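Let's practice the habit of predicting before peeking. Look at the sequence and jot down your guess about where helices and strands might fall. Then scroll down.
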Amino acid sequence: QVQLVESGGGLVQAGGSLRLSCAASERTFRSYVMGWFRQAPGNEREFVAGISWSTNYADSVKGRFTISRDNAKNTVYLQMNSLKPEDTAVYYCAASSKATSRPSDYTYWGQGTQVTVSS
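Done guessing? Here is the structure:
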């Protein structure tokens, strides 16, 4: 059982930056593919970024967001720059045994952290 705890959300003006962190409880963290997802009110949960041996991003965040991981700290990060109001959502980190962008393929989820971007 992997427990994931996100932090770093908040309120920021458009054009600003935030860094989200997700701390995992498991020492086997390094064996998991880690992903960030987001869900805005009335919308389905959508893939934002994933990291295994490589990284991949949703088109909407390419060039603005960067996912990284520190296996020694069992932590994955999401650096978000040039934020836009449409980035407003609850952001979740998740762990999977395979590289995928489908939420249904992720086994473990954090509780989420709110990101609000004002215009």
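How did you do? The chain has no helices and eleven strands.
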